[in-house]
Amino acid sequence: MVRSLLARTAIELFAAKGYDNTTLDEVAAAAGVSRRTLFNYFRNKEDLALSGLDEQGELIAARLAERPADEDAWTALRVAFQVLEEIDMSAEGRLEFITLLFGNDSLRAGHAEKQARWQDLFAPLIEPRLPDSDRRTLQARAIAAAAIICLQAANEEWVRLGGHVDLFDLYDTAVQAIRRPA
Questions:
Q1: pLDDT in tens, 121-157
Q2: Over pLDDT 90: what percentage of the chain?
Q3: How far is CA 62 from CA 12, 137, 173, in A?
Q4: Which residues have C-beta within 8 Å of that of residue 26, sequence separation ≥ 6?
Q5: CA-based nearest residue to 61, from 75, 81, 87
Q6: Cα(40)–Cα(43) distance, rounded to whole angstroms?
Q7: Distance between CA 17 and CA 7 in Å, rounded?
């Protein structure tokens, strides 16, 4: 609860003042905690800004694990990704966060690192859905990576369009682009 409040406060300040212009002291003061308390929950400013991505990855993985075993990997991933719409964040807040994320080089790099962790979470859940082969692990990792990149591309386009379109229509378009037969 405290961790979530701190992260939400930080995102609001980052959106209002800019990531680089916001200090951890300001985040702590706005949340009504000491700087030391802030560091009990987060290693640094980047960790604070990106903390929700770890939780999101775990939520997606949990939803993916719940999908029927005979469902194809792409369908299962799409349904699992929809857990993101259930996160308690307004469309405006999501737009601010994604704009912040992709507008800062260090956050963008941290985001890529978090997505690599997502791939590690999703691939073992995708693998059993694929035909048995000696390259099934590689295939599962490739599908996970491609789906994550499609989600990222959809998010970037969603921000470019001001959040006025359905994110998952954009995701479907991105997936269709890479799955289309040559």
A1: 999 999 999 999 999 999 999 999 999 999 999 999 9
A2: 60
A3: 28, 19, 25
A4: 13, 17
A5: 81
A6: 8
A7: 15
Q: What tokens were used for 162? A: 């001001």
> pTM of the full predicted structure?
0.86
Residue 15 to residue 90: CA distance in whole angstroms: 14
Tokens of 140: 């599962």
Q: Can you tell me the distance from the alpha carbon of 124 to that of 114, in angstroms, rounded to the nearest whole number?
A: 17
Task: For 137-160, give the DSSP string.
Answer: HHHHHHHHHHHHHHHHHHHHHHHH
Structural tokens at position 118: 């997502």
Q: 146: closest CA among 180, 175, 107?
A: 175
Helical pair 91-102 and 105-126, crossing angle rounded to 10 deg: 110
Q: Structure tokens of 157?
A: 């386009």
57-73 pLDDT, tens digit each: 999 999 999 999 999 99
What integer is the mean pLDDT of 14-38? 90
